Amino acid sequence: MKKQGSTHFFCVFFSKIQDIILWGRIFALICQLPLLFRLFSIQSLLKLLTPKNTNSTVNPNRQERIIKWTDTILGWNFFIFSTSCLKRSLVLYHFLKASGLPLQINFGVRKSAKAAGEPWPLLDGHGWLSLSGQTYSEKNEPLDTFKLIYSFPPLQQAE
């Protein structure tokens, strides 16, 4: 009886073996990111995460699963599985770009409230994706509050 329940669980979340493999690859990259942050500069890491070969046919269902599973794993809020725009953007950039989307990853900053005893206002940072110059898979428009300081690849290379 238990075996049938666990089989049903996997069938609900994963319709094909490729789904299980994709979920595992997303999970593995999220687990590797803390080490990669220590070993590489952001420019080197972006070059490493940019897929050499991309799928020529865009599959919206696969892209939806990539976003959903990335957000689910990062939403666990345990140990390294906590939501941060940097982790989310890097994972989505890698897998969605490989699935055929000509994405660009962007980083911006804004002034935040001045902390007590600090002579200067603090800065907040944010990372997000864009597709053809439009924000992609983001709840709010980051350019409304953040000043863009770095994009990879440059727009002409992203398309």
Quick synopsis:
With 159 residues, the protein is an alpha+beta fold. It has helices at residues 2-13, 17-39, 42-49, 60-74, 85-98, 155-158, and strands at residues 103-111, 123-131, 134-136, 147-152.
Structural features:
159 residues; alpha+beta; 6 helices; globular
Describe this structure in words.
With 159 residues, this protein is α+β, with helices and mostly antiparallel strands. The chain has one domain. The protein is 48% helix and 17% strand. It contains six helices and four strands. The protein has a four-stranded antiparallel beta sheet, covered by helices on one side. Helix 2 packs across helix 4 and helix 4 packs antiparallel against helix 5. The chain is globular, with a radius of gyration of 18 Å. The chain starts with a helix and ends with a helix. About 5% of the residues have low confidence.
